[in-house]
Design brief:
Blueprint (H helix, E strand, L loop, with lengths): L6 H24 L20 H26 L3 H22 L6 H27 L3 H20 L2 H25 L1 H9 L2
Helix pairs in contact: 1-2, 1-6, 2-3, 3-4, 4-5, 5-6, 6-7
């Protein structure tokens, strides 16, 4: 049985994001040929250096943490639309593990990469709808919607090698910022789910 509450999943999320940031930074330091905006992050997975191992560890570890975080949050929260945000995010974690396991030199890499980014986008859209209509928190809804629009504009106007890392950074900022409420206001979510 999963533990209920939002603090434990929040810690799991934080561990996953720190792991990814450390692995990405370490991989870039190990592969001096990798350049932000010129090379995709996935190119670290096929590096001739040990950077490829850090890319694999980052994707598998962070994917597992994201999957667990999403599952625990979906289990802990009652509103259906909010649960869908975290269910989709949990599935996205599985896709991220696939990104690391099926490297850029395999046909399945693009499938897992696209599925990961689509799942993140769907999760953000559902979250925007939830906070706008269920909580009437238009500031948070606008913030999330602006990040979605920014990612779409980046995809249309800039090279993929630039969009990919920026989208990942924006996602990490977004998920940490929305998770702030779940971590610090666990009592609020208990009341919403179960009453007092």
């Amino acid at each position: 049985m999963f533990p209920s509450g939002t603090k434990i999943p929040s810690v799991v999320l934080f561990i996953g994001i720190v792991l990814f940031a450390l692995c990405w930074t370490g991989a870039v330091l190990l592969d001096p040929s990798w350049t932000f905006g010129v090379n995709t992050m996935s190119e670290l997975g096929i590096s001739k250096t040990d950077a490829r191992y850090l890319f694999l560890i980052g994707c598998l570890g962070t994917g597992a943490c994201t999957c667990l975080y999403g599952a625990l949050m979906a289990y802990s929260l009652k509103p259906l639309l909010l649960r869908s945000v975290f269910t989709i995010l949990s599935i996205g974690g599985i896709f991220l593990m696939g990104v690391g396991f099926f490297t850029m030199d395999t046909d399945l890499h693009i499938v897992f990469t696209a599925a990961f980014f689509i799942s993140i986008a769907l999760s953000m859209v559902n979250y925007t709808l939830y906070v706008a209509f269920a909580e009437e928190n238009y500031l948070l809804a606008t913030y999330t919607a602006l990040l979605i629009v920014a990612n779409i504009l980046l995809l249309l106007l800039t090279p993929l090698a630039f969009v990919e890392p920026v989208a990942v950074i924006l996602f990490m900022i977004w998920i940490l910022s929305i998770n702030h409420s779940f971590f610090w206001n666990e009592d609020k979510w208990f009341i919403i789910n179960y009453g007092r």
